[in-house]
Amino acid sequence: MNPPTEPQLPKDEIPESAVRRRMIKSFGWFTLAAAVPVGVYEWITHSVGAQGIKRPLRKVLDANAQIARTYFSDTHLVPTFPVDAAARQARVNGFDGLKSPIPDDWNLHIDRPGSQPLQLTVEDVKALPKHEIVYEFKCIEGWSQVQHWGGARLSDFVEKYKLGTKSGSSPNPDNTDDLFKYVGMETPDKGYYVGIDMESAMHPQTLLAYELNGQPITAPHGAPLRLIIPVKYGVKNLKRIGRIFFTDDRPRDFWAERGYDYYVGL
Ligand SMILES: Nc1nc2c(c(=O)[nH]1)N[C@H]1C(S)=C(S)[C@@H](COP(=O)(O)O)O[C@H]1N2
Ligand SMILES: [Mo]
User: pLDDT grade, residue 147 (50/70/90)?
Assistant: First the structure.
């Protein structure tokens, strides 16, 4: 069957692409050309993979995980736009963790290993340098919109309150071993939760946001404080942050538990 030059690999070591190439060879191009459009259509409509994610999408997302790890360093900035390019009515999507009113006693709860948790207010976040960003917000469901957000850099916040490190000092770029690998966030009722790799969390465009279009964020958009993380799809942009914690164990993640890729980088 195989030409003599082709090495004989045990079956499970043959890359999928080689198997496909071989199938194409034996199947014949003519038959293939006729079969593919129907085959692909059937595959997309009928092949539901793990946790209900259709396999072709699952594949793309797996590839994104690789890219997200290597490509999104803090030197890569997402493209930005002039303020007047932003949508006047930002789209609203996703109400998990927002189904009850904002708690009257809301504060930002920060866990610190070996120390008392911090209880902070929006004023504490506003005391940090304000940054605005106008960029294309992307939802994994297939829509995107140029939006204008304002807040403090998560990296400035982490530095100010000496968070994210095992030693309890401010993060030091020369001592990355001291940094925890992940940031976890959840809504006050724990109805929505995300895990973010530290590199993306410390990205200079990642904000603890309190403004949308120059106005305080409204409840459906995540008042009083939400995450804006432009290097990630919408799912990671948690609205109504109640608690933040730092860990080396991958925090649970609402949409990852439902079959989406954990890293969902753009
Ligand atoms: N608390 C909470 N945050 C959330 C969600 C959610 O359901 N609950 N949905 C996410 C998704 S899928 C998207 S696309 C964005 C939408 O943000 P927006 O409503 O401000 O457009 O919020 C993200 N953050
Ligand atoms: Mo989304």
Answer: very high
Tokens 């294309």: give the residue: 136
Question: Is residue 76 within 6 Å of ligand 1 at its C-beta?
Answer: no
**pLDDT, average across residues 232-253:** 98
Pocket lining: 138 vs ligand 1, CB cutoff 6 Å: no
Cα separation, 200 vs 231, whole angstroms: 7
Position 243 in a domain: yes
- When pLDDT is averaged across residues 197-217 and rounded to a whole number, the result is 96
Which domain does 105 fall in, by range?
54-258
For the stretch 216-222, contacts whose Cβ atoms lie closer than 8 Å and that sit 24 or more positions apart, written own/partner, are: 219/98, 219/101, 219/102, 220/92, 220/95, 220/98, 221/90, 221/92, 222/98
- Distance between CA 57 and CA 39 in Å, rounded? 16
* Residue from 180, 213, 207, 198 nearest 125 by CA: 207
Q: Confidence class of residue 96 from pLDDT cuts 50, 70 and 90?
A: very high
pTM over 0.85: no
Q: What are phi and psi of 215, to 5 degrees?
A: -115, 155
115 occurs within a structural domain = yes
237 lines ligand 1 (CB under 6 A): yes
Q: For the residues 107-122, what does the mean pLDDT come to? A: 96
CATH number for 208: 3.90.420.10
